[in-house]
Structure formats: C-alpha cells, structure tokens
Design a protein that fits this description.
- Keywords: Leucine-rich repeat, Repeat, Signal.
- This protein is α/β, with parallel strands linked by helices and 1183 residues long.
- The protein is built from 26 helices and 52 strands.
- The strands form 12 sheets. Strands 16, 17, 18, 19, 20, 21, 22, 28, 30, 32, 34 and 36 form a 12-stranded mixed beta sheet that branches. Strands 37-38-39-40-41-43-45-47-49-50 form a 10-stranded mixed beta sheet, with helices on one face.
Length: 1183
C-alpha cells in the first residue's frame, strides 16, 4: 500500500471548503483548524497504523504465521518486558478475532435494537463548520445507540455547538476536533435540538444567512432562555439536555469497537483534488454501497483538511464507511453540482488513506440524556430496562453467570455489553475455542539478551496464567514454554536482501529460557537480524447463536454495575410473582440480613392484598442470624401472587438488641432493587440512612413513607413529576431519633431547600403535572432549610393538601403569604386541616392574609420559633399554638363574626356582578354595582337593634318591571348571614340579568348560610352580531359547594346540557326550578335521593328517555313538572302507584300506557293518530 508523500502532505490546508487554496497555511481560518505539518503527520500515522492493523489481523486469524509477502508483526508492540504490554496485544487480537469483520451503523441486521443509527446527512453549506457538524452528528448517534431510539429523535444542533460555545466563531472561523469535544463537557447546555437554533436564526434580521452574521450572541440567547419553545427554554447550564464524554482512540480496533457500541468515531480527513473525480456528478444518485471506495491517486494534490464521521468498516476489504456533512446528492438545492456528494451522504475509503482513523486523533463520544432532562427526568436511565440482558446464576461460583448468545451477538460484543475484560471472558470460556500452540510474533529489530529473557518470562507468566502449564488439565492442554527463533548471518547479507528474513539464506537458532541462561550469546551474536517469538494463545473466533458463555465479573458484586447491563433469571424459588420481582425482593431482604442466602430470603416472600386501611397483612419473621423484622408484600392478585404493588418492612431487633443501626440503608442497592418492582404503588419502609435517590421518581407511587434515623442528601427535584398519583408523602425521622447523631457524619437528616420544581405545577418542556391528589406531606425531623415552600393556595401550586408537617427542620424567613392565596374559582376540594411548622428558625410577623384560611385550617402549630412575632390572624375555628415565640395571640378583628362578614363581603365583591352582568345595559349594571357596594359597606352592621333581618334591594332605574335585585340577610348568634338572592323582572316578556354560571359556584361556596338563589329570565343577551359570549351549563359541583341551599330557581336562563347526576347529592334541596331552558339528556335517577324536595320544575325543555323507576322513592308530597318535553317516552312505572300525594304534570310528553290508580296530575300526552300527533288523556290502569 502506498505511503503519503511528505511533499504532498506539506500542502495540506485546514479548511472545510471545496475551493483549492494556495499556500502553506489557510488564507482564512475556516473548517478544521490544523496546520499542514499536522495533517502530514496524521496521514503518516494513519498509514503506519494500517500496517499495524494488517499485522493484528494476521495474528488473530492465522496465528501470526505471515500474511502475504510481509509476514511480520513487528508493528504491533515492543519486547513485552511488562505483562501489561503483552496483555494489550492479547486484548487486541481477541477483539479483532471475536468481532464482526464487517459492520455498518445503518445495517439493521447488525445494530442493537435493529435500528438504522446513521442520521440524514447534514449540510454545512458554505460555512466551514465541518467539525461542529461531525461532533453534533456523533452526539446524535451516541444518544440513539444509548437509548435504542430512532436517531432522528435526537437532532442535535451543530449551529448551537459551533456558534454559541466559547470562542466567538463565525461562518469563516473554523474549529479543531479536541476543542469542540471539550465544549461537550464544559458547555453541555449548547447541545440542543436543531429546532432551537433554527427558530432563533429565523428571527434574526439577517434571516437564515449564516455567512452574513458576525455576532451570534443574540441568536444564542434566543435558542435557550429567550426561546418560545418550552423544550429549548428548559435547557440551562445547571440542567442540560444531554451529558457527554469523549476519548481518543489509539488504534483501528478501538475505533471499530467504539463504532459498534456508540455508532461512530470522529476523524480528520485530508481532502485531495481527485475526490470529486472519483465521486463525480453521477455519484449523487448512488448510495455508499453502490460506489467503489476512494483510493487516492498518487498524483492527487492535497487541498484542505476536513472532519467527518466513521460509521462503519470492512476488514475483509480494508475500508471505512464515512458520513460527510455535504448533504445528499439527491437534494436539488445541494450547491455541489460538480461532485463530492452521494445519495445518502456517505462514502467508503481505503484504510490507511487520507488520515482517516489517525491514532489518538480520532475520537469517540459517549452520550446519554442528562439526569433531570426530559428523557432522563429521574436519573434512572429508563432505557436500561429495554437493554438489560438475562443472566442465569451458576451454582459453581458466586458472582458467575451464564449467558446464551443470540444471532446478533459476537464474542466481542458480549464482552462489550457486560463490561467484562475480554481476556477474562476468554479465560472463563476456554472450552469454546481452539488453542494455537505456536502463535508467532515476528520482530524486525534485534533484541538484547535482557529483553529476550524478560519477554520470555512475561509471556510465560501471562499465557500459563490463562492456559495453565504444559499438559495442564485445562482446555488446550496448557501453554507451551515460549521460545524465540532468531536468524543471524556469519557475514553481512547481500545488499539485495532488504530486509533479510527466514525465507532467505541465514542461520536459525532456537532460544528458549534455558538456552538464554546457559549461552545467551548464541541468540545475540553479531549478525543477528531478527527474532520470532513462539507462544500459546487462544484462537478467538465467532460462536454460534445459542452458545452458552460463562461470565465472571468482580464488578457484578456491585448491584449498580450489574443492573446497568443485566437482570437475574433462573431462580424461581417463589414462583407466584414475576422472576425479576422475586430477585428484587430477595435483594431487599438480603439488605435486612446480609447473611441470608437466596433460598432463605425467598422463603420469607408471601403475597397479600393491598387494602386502603390496613393495607397488607404484616408478618413477623426471625432470621437464622436472629434478626427480627416485620414484612408485608402486597400483590395484585392477593395471596395468588401477581405483580408486587406494595412493600412494607421494619427491623424490630437484632439479637434481642434494639438500635438505630440495625435497620438497612436506603442505598443504591436497595433503590435498584425497588426499581425492578415496576408495579409498586405503596412503599412503607424503616431505614437507618441513605438518600432519597432521584431514581425513585420513576416508580408510579400512590403512597410513600420512609421513616429513617440518619438519612442525608437532598430531596430529588423531579420526583413529584413522576409520582403523579401520589396521595401521601412521608419522609421523616423517627420520633425517638430527633437528637441522634451519627458518629461518622454528625447531624442527621435530609438537607437543602424544598426543590423549586415542587412548587411549579406544570413542567413546561414535558407538560408533566404535579400530583393533584397529594393530601399529606410530612418532611418533619430533617435538616431542611431555606424558605417555607409555597405549596398551599393558588392555582399554580399543590392546593389539595390536607396535612403539612414541616416541624423540626431549619427553615428560615417568614410564613408565606402565598399560603393564603385564593383557591381556584370552584372552591377547595378539601380542607387544609393541619399545618405544623414547630421548631424551625422562622421570624417576622404572620401574614395578615392567613385570615383567608378560616373555616379551612383546623390546627396551626408555631411553637419553638423564637423570632416569630406579631399576632395570629385566625378565628377560634383554628387551634393555634405558639409557645416559645413572640406571637402575642389572635389578632383583633379575628372573631368568628369578623371573619364570616369579611368572607361574605369578599364573595359579593368578587363574584356577584360577574355572575349577573353579561351583555346587560349600563343601567342594569349600575343597579348591580349599587347593591354590591351597599353590602360591602354595611354587612355586619346592617341589621338594626331589635330586628333579625335586613333586605338590600335595588330596582332598575326604569322600574322593577325592567329588573330588580334583592339580597336578604338574617341575624344568627350575632352574625349577619346572606340568606337569599333574588333577581328578576316584573314583566313576563322582559329579560332580567345576563347570567354567567361559571361564577355561581365560587359565589355560593363563600355564602355558608344561603338558602335561596332565584334568577328568573336571566338569559344572556345576544351581542350585536347575534352571537353569545357565554354558553351556560349546570355546574356539577354546586351541591358540594352550597350544601345548605334549599331553593334554586333558574327558569328561562337558556341553560343547555344535561342535569348533573351530582344534583342527587343536594340533600337539603326543597325547590328546584329549571323550567323553560334547553336541557337535554335523560332524567337522572339519582334525584330520587332528594328526600326534602317539594317542587321539581323541568317543564319546556328537551329532555328524553323514560321516567326512572327509582323516582318512586321521591317524597310523597311533590309537584313534578315535565310538561312540553315531547321526547320523554315509555310508560309510567307501576311502582309510582304508591306516590298518591305527588302531583305529576306530564302534559305534552310522549308517555304512553296508563296511569296507576290514585295518581294526581295532568296526564294529557302526545299520541300518534292518523299520521299526526294529538293530545291524548292517559287512561287509568285497570289493575
């Protein structure tokens, strides 16, 4: 193979452009930043490495007996005076022999997951950003390989990497590969989706014209913090999207290994003027495998330096497959019309040519979604669950497993997948291979006697450690004693012999260890020109699918390393639950008692069913080591097994002693075991120490209780986004351990502040919500600090809490005013019962706005905060304790009467006018505002002495026939309660208010004694264009928000939709008038529960269906109006015969049949007669 000419290499330029540049250095700093001399050295090193690789191929395939006319392996190493050097030679030969000879990252029959990992070819355009394009594509491919996801899911922006990282580059600047790779680690926030940079670029005044932009600072800001795309804005320096590392690759076989495991390697490439000739215009229509590999013509001139990706190799034909960044030749807009592109953007090139694969200057990147990012929110590497492989424990040796190879496996890929040294894998599987007893390593240089002796000593030690001594009972019969055969001449060889070797005249002498000890001069005499080393080694070859491989990895003692690559199978001691889950439970039990073997641990597994009250059956066990513990395991099918969905454990004693340290730690091993319980929803455990690992957020928990003695670390930021169904969160120190300090770490407890993510209801980049049903948070007894979390009140935080326990921490600052922000417009779904913030470091006065929590907050514990001051603005409804503070007591004006009056005034101020003023005239709106102002000013002092009621009334300026409004107030125990609200007109043809029912619930929920709400003819008036701003439906939450309401009248209000079934829960309701609306749907049978109902008016609607038989249970004294609902059909249920006191008005319905005897009412219904409908009086039933 031809070598690069130094004269040609001196002309190499550092740019990624198709122009021929003149001179020894680039005229503009574009593309690949490398000098002519550097490119020349790269090319020479690549050519030398190819020689080495050919030797390695010969050694791994033929035992080193020669290949072609060269027949030497002297490029592979030195004299092996150290074991490490010889072991490196073995490793390289094993990898080459045990790997696929041909591999491409686009070949779905070879790649993991069966995916094409080569992205669409990038187009760098006229800008010299080839390094940025290559690095971005390498990151993209590594992410896809890591996660086993389509490569186009990770379209990493080359522009953001190139222009936004340190350096201030422009279109014409250029970059070098190591500098670019360092930015992956130092500025990971610029690894962004392509859409982020493209969107920012389009908003630039220069548009998408990269060459015209001299300063990208504004564009770079627009890709992240100022981006309008949530996924882009979420990426920060503290929270990057991806995490990458890189390494230089020092040999062809390491490059190939990296391609198989991460998709690609980044390489320099020297571009010659015959490249466009070999890949001319016709190549644009052909793919990489349809074109011949590039071979540099000896007369070709070097033009410039370039960067690209190696994405495949062919060791049978000695070629690389390279992905370029010049786009696709099939794209009409591609500017390269004369050549240089292919249809798929790839080309093949002969190994050893153009500097491709230069040792130590070719790089591999290893990337994964960063912990906390969208694709790895809980740092649990979720892709591992699909990439972990099954291993069966072997009984012969602890820590050893058996793996059965698949069709896609090679011996080398097994070592790569399980992160096992390939030399160890060979040692444990000698029976699968042949041993070559006379592997030959040929030197081209002479060695001294000391070098010969030390080499033999080293090689003998290494090979016999692997194969045993000669005639050992190992596979292959042991290793021979290595020896040299050296060639020397009595006289200098003829000049024509260049170089002399064993195939030419000369004297050959065998030199083993004994010879060297007795007569070393025999092997080192003058005229010696070369020696060959003979030794035993394993001939690693491809194995058939199904081959059983033994894996012994000391690293597997670490559950972390094991869980990254494998899961255990083949145990099935307790076979009522899935195999992985049995192993996971066993590992948890072996943390409780490390002396338990597998069988003993599995003997304690016993399923029961999760129950909401005492959620599982708890059993007490005593291990052979006298550890007494309580255990409960909930299974989806109860005692019959199924998926594990609940786990409880607590150590009770250790050899009759009770101490904090008898409990296991919530360490990495336990966390990884819990993650294998994929269906776990209840977790209640007692531990000594450890941390709340972010990985636990991947569990779909509804209940989490961790009682600990000495945990540390911080609360995981994104955990609550994972626990979307969580109802109770308890992470607290044991009550008897509040003063306990660990001898090693000192003060115990989880520290840091409450994560800000816990107060952000929606994570914008994923649209993931916090758990809306979370009712109980207990973080007491830790070392939490910072401000108290704003997780009560408001629509953007968790507001469904019932209990909040934060006592015995180190919180500072003031009690948040946000805790008393108004709840959502439909009112609270549950009450805040208890807040405990005792024994913190809080200061300042309590916010006056806490008064908004009256009738919600039952207990507020403030004790033990010496700097907390002021008064408590809460009514006697709330029990407040404040010993050890400067709080003086309850604030003035905090009586029950003050609070109730203030709450009602706020309700009228906030919702009364909004409820009634849609599209009304200005005079009607003025009337509403007048009565609202009157109530706001006078409620609480409006009832005169000696009286028990007061009516606020306003009429329309044109008289009551145009509209009126009355609000009645009654006095009860010294408190004025709004009792009734009545709105209407005195003229039947005139519409009253403009009703907006979305505000009815918020109003009613804040008027606790309201009995009556009447709004007759409160239809929303049309806008001038005939449309309506509001479409009213009946709010289903009304019975919950106004349980004391007795009369609701909304006739002629243009209400649509159905009658909510929840209206059956309005147990105090006596009078319900929904006449003359546009209600549809069936009659809810749930209304039969209204035992106090006297009047139910549903006339003149569009209801359908039949009379529910359940309505026979309605009160006996009831007026039921269903007139003019012509779609109500069927017969009157016979059970209605008992309702002799009910008056039924069924005029103009479509009910047929007869009416039971004794029923009262109007029974003229519609009935078909001669093709038309006529009124028909239902006859009495005869029976």
């Amino acid at each position: 193979m031809s070598k690069f000419s130094g004269r040609l290499l001196a002309a190499a330029l550092a740019c990624c452009t198709l122009l021929l540049l003149v001179g020894t250095r680039p005229t503009a700093g574009q593309g690949l930043s490398a000098t002519n001399e550097q490119l020349g050295a790269n090319a020479q090193a690549t050519a030398t490495e190819f020689d080495t690789f050919e030797d390695l191929m010969a050694l791994s395939t033929t035992g080193g007996r020669g290949r072609g006319s060269r027949g030497t392996s002297g490029n592979l190493g030195s004299s092996f005076r150290e074991a490490r050097e010889f072991e490196q030679l073995q490793t390289s030969t094993y990898y080459v022999g045990g790997s696929l000879p041909i591999y491409n990252s686009f070949n779905t029959s070879q790649t993991p997951g069966g995916l094409n990992y080569v992205p669409k070819p990038r187009e760098q355009g006229s800008c010299n950003s080839c390094v940025g394009q290559a690095v971005a594509a390498a990151v993209q491919m590594s992410l896809a390989y890591t996660t086993r996801q389509p490569v186009d899911d990770f379209s990493v922006s080359a522009g953001a990497l190139y222009y936004c990282t340190t350096g201030g580059r422009t279109c014409k600047t250029g970059w070098d590969i190591p500098a670019a790779l360092r930015q992956l680690e130092q500025a990971a926030q610029w690894m962004l989706p392509s859409k982020c940079f493209e969107a920012a670029l389009q908003k630039n005044p220069a548009g998408a014209a990269e060459p015209d932009i001299s300063d990208f600072q504004g564009i770079c800001l627009g890709t992240t913090s100022k981006s309008e795309i949530p996924a882009c804005k979420a990426v920060t320096k503290e929270q990057p999207g991806y995490s990458c590392s890189f390494k230089s690759l020092s040999s062809f076989w390491q490059i190939q290994q990296h391609i198989r495991t991460h998709g690609s390697a980044i390489t320099r490439i020297a571009m010659y003027d015959d490249f466009n000739v070999q890949f001319n215009r016709s190549a644009a229509k052909r793919t990489v495998m349809q074109l011949n590999p590039y071979r540099r013509n000896t007369t070709a001139k070097l033009q410039y330096g370039h960067a690209a990706l190696i994405v495949g190799y062919d060791n049978d034909n000695f070629t690389w497959t390279v992905l370029n960044s010049w786009g696709s030749g099939s794209t009409p807009s591609n500017p390269r019309k004369t050549g240089g592109t292919t249809k798929d953007g790839m080309f093949r090139i002969r190994m050893g040519v153009a500097g491709v694969g230069t040792p130590d200057l070719t790089y591999g990147v290893v990337c994964e979604p960063a912990p906390g990012s969208v694709d790895n929110m809980h740092a649990n590497n979720p892709w591992l669950k699909d990439t972990r492989l099954p291993l069966t424990p072997t009984e012969k040796k602890k820590g050893c497993y058996t793996y059965n190879m698949t069709a896609k496996d090679t011996f080398a890929s097994v070592a790569e997948k399980f992160k096992v040294k390939i030399s160890d894998l060979v040692r444990d599987n000698l029976q699968l291979f042949n041993v070559t007893p006379n592997t030959t390593y040929k030197y081209q240089t002479t060695l001294s006697a000391d070098e010969l002796k030390e080499t033999l000593r080293t090689v003998q030690a290494v090979t016999q450690r692997l194969l045993g001594k000669p005639d050992a009972p190992k596979a292959g019969g042991g290793a021979i004693e290595p020896y040299f055969v050296c060639t020397y001449y009595e006289a200098p060889p003829p000049v024509t012999q260049d170089p002399p070797d064993a195939g030419k005249p000369g004297i050959r002498v065998s030199c083993d260890k004994a010879t060297l000890e007795s007569n070393e001069r025999l092997c080192t005499r003058n005229g010696t020109v070369g020696c060959s080393l003979f030794y035993s080694d394993v001939n690693v070859t491809q194995l058939a699918p199904g081959s059983s491989i033994s894996l012994c990895n000391a690293g597997f003692d670490s559950i972390t390393i094991f869980n990254e690559v494998a899961y255990e199978v083949g145990t099935r001691i307790y076979d009522l639950i899935p195999e992985k889950q049995e192993v996971a439970l066993r590992r948890v039990l072996q943390l409780i008692d490390p002396k338990l073997d597998d069988a003993e641990a599995s003997s304690y597994i016993n399923c029961s069913r999760v129950d909401e009250i005492d959620w599982v059956v708890r059993r007490t066990h005593v291990t052979p080591s006298q550890i007494r513990f309580s255990l409960a395991i909930g299974c989806s099918n109860g005692m019959n097994g199924g998926d594990v969905d609940g786990l409880y454990f607590r150590v009770l004693s250790n050899k009759t002693e009770v101490s904090p340290t008898m409990h296991p730690n919530l360490n990495e091993q336990m966390v990884l075991a819990l993650l294998d319980l994929l269906k776990l929803s209840w977790l209640d455990i007692y531990v000594y120490g450890g941390q709340v690992a972010p990985q636990l957020g991947a569990l779909n928990l509804t209940f989490l209780s961790v009682n600990h003695y000495c945990m540390d670390g911080k609360l995981p930021s994104n955990a609550l986004y994972g626990w979307q169904k969580l109802k109770q969160l308890i992470i607290t120190r044991q009550g008897d351990a509040l003063d306990y300090n660990d001898p090693a770490i000192g003060a115990c407890g989880i520290s840091g502040s409450i994560p800000k993510q816990w107060m952000n209801r929606t994570r914008q980049d994923t649209r993931t919500h916090l758990p809306g049903g979370l009712s109980n948070i207990d973080l007491s007894g830790n070392l939490l600090s910072g401000s108290l979390p704003e997780i009560i009140g408001g629509n953007d935080v968790i507001y469904n809490l019932t209990y909040l326990y934060l006592q015995h921490n180190k919180f500072t600052g003031r009690v948040p005013a946000a805790w008393s922000q108004p709840l959502d417009k439909n009112g609270p779904s549950r009450k805040i019962i208890t807040i405990n913030i005792q024994n913190n470091l809080l200061d300042g006065p309590l916010p006056a706005s806490l008064i908004n929590l009256e009738e919600q907050l039952a207990y507020l514990y403030l004790d033990g905060n010496p700097q907390l001051s002021g008064c408590a603005p809460l009514t006697p409804y709330t029990t407040v304790t404040f010993a050890g503070t400067q709080v003086t007591g309850r604030c003035a004006g905090s009586t029950v009467a003050d609070v109730v009056h203030r709450r009602q005034r706020h309700a009228i101020s906030a919702y009364f006018v909004k409820l009634l003023d849609v599209n009304v005239d200005d005079e009607f709106r003025e009337m509403l505002n007048n009565i609202a102002d009157d109530i706001k000013q006078n409620l609480g002092k409006s009832v005169k002495p000696g009286q028990v009621s007061k009516t606020f009334q306003e009429n329309h300026p044109q008289g009551a026939q145009q509209g009126y409004c009355r609000v009645s107030v009654v006095l009860n125990d010294g408190i004025e309660y709004i009792d009734a609200i009545e709105v209407g007109t005195n003229e039947a043809m005139i519409k009253a208010a403009g009703l907006d029912l979305q505000w009815l619930g918020p109003l009613l929920s804040r008027l606790p004694r309201l009995r009556v709400f009447d709004c007759e003819r409160c239809s929303v008036a049309n806008d001038e264009d005939g449309t309506r701003d509001v479409v009213n439906t009946l709010p289903p939450e009304l019975p919950r928000l106004a349980p004391n309401l007795k009369r609701l009248a909304l006739p002629e209000c243009d209400i649509v939709g159905s009658i909510p079934v929840s209206f059956g829960d309005w147990l105090q309701m006596q009078y319900l008038d929904l006449n003359s609306n546009s209600l549809t749907g069936e009659l809810p049978q749930e209304l039969a529960k209204l035992k106090n109902l006297n009047v139910l008016f549903l006339n003149n609607n569009m209801l359908n269906g039949t009379l529910p038989a359940a309505w026979s249970a309605m009160p006996k004294e009831l007026y039921l109006g269903l007139n003019q609902n012509t779609n109500i059909t069927g017969e009157i249920p016979a059970s209605f015969a008992n309702n002799t006191g009910t008056y039924y008005s069924l005029f103009n319905t479509s009910i047929t049949g007869c009416r039971p005897c004794g029923l009262l009412g109007q029974f003229k219904t519609w009935r078909p007669l001669n093709g038309t409908y006529n009124t028909w009086e239902l006859p009495r039933c005869t029976a």
